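Handoff note, outgoing to incoming analyst
You'll be picking up this chain. Sequence as last confirmed:
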Amino acid sequence: MNVFDRRWSDIKDLNSCSYIDLNMANKKCDYSNEEGRRVILKEFRRVVKDILEPHHDDDFLLRWLRARDFDIIKSEKMIRESFKFRKKIGADTILTSAYELPEVFKKYPVTFSLGLDSENSAVRVFMPGICDYKGYVYSLRTMDLMKLLVHFLEYDLKMLQEKKKKIGKLDIKTTFIMDFQEFSLKKFYDKSVINAGIQLITMYQDNYPETLKAAYLVNVPSYFSWVFNIFKPFLNSVTLSKIKIYKTDEWQEEIKKVVDPKVLPAFLGGLRTDPDGNPKCNTLVNWDSKIDPSFYLKQNMNPGGIDDETMKTTTIQQRSVFQMPVEIKTPGTILKWVFRTKDYNIRFGLFYKTDKKSRQEEILPVENVDCQVIPEENEFVCEKTGTYILYFDNSYSWMTAKQLFYKVETENPNVIEANNKTDVKS
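Most recent structure output, in case you need it:
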């Protein structure tokens, strides 16, 4: 059989993929043996080579293949969508000074790292039992909640990568210990909280595939199955198979098999205490977790919502676009935006021009945004001076005009630095 290369955009319903060997797409390859996996991996690397960096090794690529059952087409779509997301949220710089943890988290931390376990997997503790869910959702935008979670995930991955460099072969995995002690439905049951939880779960599975080793849900209440059933439809089968739920203390011995009791907090059955011997480890956890309303966002905790009177509005006619240029004169300026439409989705992208005569560069690709449901909000650190163009595209709609509500702001880096110095002094 001859081998043909063809662009998948020419084939109906497969327009997201790149040049690929038709034999690889049509043939059911045997990936149960090493040779089969090697062939598929080689082809997958060729297909996505345009987006890969030198540190993206075979182990990294295999994560995406396993997540889509070694289907190259689906794996490519998944990894490309994830790379767009990482660029959008700033994942590659989230461990640098470009990102600062929100003040509300600094005062009310809900997670902490325990380092590596005996099998060199990362171990992270979450405290969903004491978490003030409504307080967090009211204090942070959905995008900021995602950035917060991405920060923790990237921190753990960096720790694992550094260990891998030292010892060579290492399976990149993380164990989550989720303590539901003091959990109550009253502080959890809220539509905005549930929606945020679903988005965070989806974001994790779509962008960090095959990195979960195990999730221990401990000290769960008797009614926990009701809560779990809300999120269960959004968990894939692989994730579900790694979740272990415990109502009693039986989990302690299992966790101690992989986590050194010396680093495991005493309130989780370990030996770690505060320097003064306090078993509740107040240096790690703020048990007084009720978030002060002073942290809450304005406009009923919903920037860009119907109560936000600062939003501007315009109507984008069918088969038309709306462009909003923003002049940036200081490197490091943060460009922020939030927008929504009244009834329908819109396509959005971000472009850059050095000056009027220069060619327009794509920063964020133009893609569909369902902002008629939840306002779309994001920010971008403008490392270069010039004109940044917010691009709203309705050209794909032949019959429907879109009413757009939007707000665009810039934050000067000098002001941010001055504020940070003031905070340090206080």
